[in-house]
Amino acid sequence: MAACKIGEFAKSKAGHDKEEIFIIINIEEEYVYLVDGKSRILDKPKKKKIKHIQVINQIDEELQRKLETNLILRDEDIKRAIKSYKQKIGGR
């Protein structure tokens, strides 16, 4: 089982969303809740088994700051973090 933390990036390894990048927003036993700010918003996260994701041990600095200080996290913050991550790795 992959060790994961709230706020980390994760890539889906299975399902119709395979290869998509998400952010872990909650963890419950063998499941994680994933958001991307577009199709999977904070109000309706994707529930996925931990074994079906690849955890990317990286957290966006601004997201981390908001999570640590209990500031309001918005879907726009999630989209910005994923877009920034994809630019760093040379993605679309």
What does this 3D model show about the protein?
The protein is an alpha+beta fold. The chain has helices at 61-68, 75-89, and strands at 8-12, 21-28, 31-35, 46-49, 53-59. A five-stranded antiparallel β-sheet has the order 4-3-2-1-5. A hairpin with an 8-residue loop joins β1 and β2. The termini are far apart.
Order of helices and strands: EEEEEHH
SSE-based structural type: alpha+beta
How many DSSP E strands? Answer: 5
Strand order of the largest sheet: 4-3-2-1-5
Query: What are the low-pLDDT stretches, counting only 5+ consecutive residues below 50?
Result: none
Largest sheet: 5 strands, antiparallel
Strand content: 25-35%
Helical amount: 25-40%
User: Compute the gyration radius: what is it?
Assistant: 12 Å
Shape: globular
Task: Describe the SSE topology.
Blueprint: E1 8-12, E2 21-28, E3 31-35, E4 46-49, E5 53-59, H1 61-68, H2 75-89
Antiparallel strand pairs: 1-2, 1-5, 2-3, 3-4
Summarize the structure.
The protein is an alpha+beta fold and 92 residues long. The protein is built from 2 helices and 5 strands, in the order E-E-E-E-E-H-H. The termini are far apart.
Keywords:
92 residues; 25% helix; globular
